Structure formats: C-alpha cells, structure tokens
Amino acid sequence: MNNGCICCTVRGDLIHILSRLMYCRDKFDRILIETTGMANLLSEANEERAANDPEWFS
C-alpha cells in the first residue's frame, strides 16, 4: 500500500489489496493490521464485512 492511512484515506485500497493477496495464495490463518491510536477499528471491520456481504448495510 502506497502512502495513506487505512482509517481515513485508503480503506478501499486495503480491501482491494487483501482481496488480491487472498487470490494469489492459500488461505491465511490470520491477517494482522497494526494501526495507530487514531484508527477506528469498528469502521474498518464494517468495511471488510461489507466487501464480503453486500447486504450488510441494507
């Protein structure tokens, strides 16, 4: 990921990058995302879920 903070500017990029990684290799056991104290992790989790479940926000 080039430049940016996952909590405010590149959320969509994060989902895209993780999707590409999962396509290129076997299943991950875990994905660790280290953030600063400024990150809104609930927002990140909601975005990830929305990417996998379009009905999540409807």
Automatic annotation (TrEMBL):
InterPro entries: CobW/HypB/UreG_nucleotide-bd, P-loop_NTPase, Zinc-reg_GTPase_activator. GO terms for cellular component: cytoplasm. The lineage of its organism: Bacteria, Pseudomonadati, Pseudomonadota, Gammaproteobacteria, Enterobacterales. Pfam families: cobW (PF02492). Residues 1-40 form the CobW/HypB/UreG nucleotide-binding domain. It comes from Klebsiella pneumoniae. This is Metal chaperone. SUPFAM superfamilies: P-loop containing nucleoside triphosphate hydrolases (SSF52540).
